[in-house]
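Field: sequence (string)
Field: structure_tokens (string)

Example rows 1 and 2, in order.
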Amino acid sequence: MSRKIGRNDPCWCKSGRKYKACHQAFDEKIERIREAGHIVPDHDMIKTKDQIEKIKESAKINVAVLDYISEQIKEGMSTEEIDRMVYEKTTRMGGYPATLHYQDFPKSSCTSLNHQVCHGIPSERDILKEGDILNVDISTRLDGYYSDSSRMFCIGEVSPEKKKLVEVARECIDVGLKEVKPWGFLGDMGQAIHDYAYAHGYTVVREIGGHGVGLEFHEDPWVSYNSKRGTEMLMVPGMIFTIEPMINMGRAEIYIDDKDGWTVYTQDGMPSAQWEVQVLVTDDGYEIISY
């Protein structure tokens, strides 16, 4: 945890209350769990009330942009067209696409087709055709606060196999959300998602997971979906992170495109699907703030 705070000092959460009447018991509970051998969050991972409200404002734009894409997406459209819509809608609402120029990423969104797992770079050459499945992943920065979510899209009539993959990937989010509880562990969620995917004959990507988000685009903790109950970081009220398991129809192995350095593919060429939500841990469960 952070530096020692006196009982009568102002609380670190900037509530204006004395520490003893605000977060002292909360911190002491976290410390007991840390002493029992668990990974616990520090104060930097626990968002204040004011920060949460500002992150939610960013998320409103993120959701609105994905809603807009959902209304416009169609067969014959290029992924570059989708990217332009993301940029125009985001900036028109006062935000900025967080992916644009992030570590030299060249676009305002990630568009991942069929056997592309994630981080697909929008292109005029990638034309949506009937039977495709597509993940559109967008992130918004508004006044220095970040939101992040993605959705899957089925283009026209897709095969029953692809449709089931997309559906199960979405169900994995719901299964994981049931395990998001204060004073539980990220591994509770990770194992629930892992077990559900594998029970349906799918695999879960190991190397790429979810992450904290809000004050930065990517923050701690890293979130695995191949973890065990009772392990990984303790979840406490005020934490914000993404749930975004990548579910493969075939094997779990992946590789990164050597040419662009970003696009992730399934090693066996089988389709992959992913949905992403941004979640706030609350006093009695969770709140989805971007989807």
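Row 2 begins here:
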Amino acid sequence: MFITIAVIFVLLATFLLIIVNMYSDYVSRREQDTRLISSKAKNIIAECEELLLNQSQVAFSKTLVLVLHYRIIRALRKRAIDPKARDEVRERIANEEKIISEIKTNYQESTSFKAPDNDAMAISQLRTIKRLRAIIKSEMTSGVPLNPSAINKEDRRLYILVLKVNISNLIQKVFEMKRLHQIGTCRQLIDRGIGVIKAAGVKDGWLTEKEDLLTNLLNGINAESKGNNTKDKKEKADADGQSLADKDDLDQIFGDKKKW
């Protein structure tokens, strides 16, 4: 009888130990998942705040600013899974909602293109635009409370902005190659720029103006090259003519003497 009770006790203890271990593993996994979700949310918030602080690089529309603030709110709500962060999250969400209300009422947007001054700035702008377009697509699938047509319009604006950054940077290189008299490279860059603009099929005043500029530059280079070729041919012909005249003079001086 005693042995039976002891066996039952051991089995119960073993069963309880298994239950405790399972519960401990569950709590550990839940805490790990909570930390992971909270960490991802923090990274999203930090990225949005960084982009909002660097609006000097790329012109932000009202729609784009709202998308970023709504993304911050969504990330904050995910952070609320952490009990330690709930009070902070509640205050941040209330503050973000006030900011959104202010933006909807008073935001003065300026979407004029800011041409890059150099390669480094162009690369930085392109990276920023790439991040913004990825965020817009992500928020559209997440159900951001904005008109989908407005978001699509903003994505289209950013796409055109990529073209403008690339064309602006290309034109700077064209003038640099022209200054260095690297006409072949210059012509290749111009052809590439005109091809990109035509292939894009975008109706935009700035791009049309730059296409005309590149076309005029190409015509000027071709005319200059043609003029130089004509000049070279004339100089070569004059040089050949002079050589023949000199040869005749030499023949007369050093040729066979006639007997007088």
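free_text_note (row 2): The chain has seven helices and no strands.
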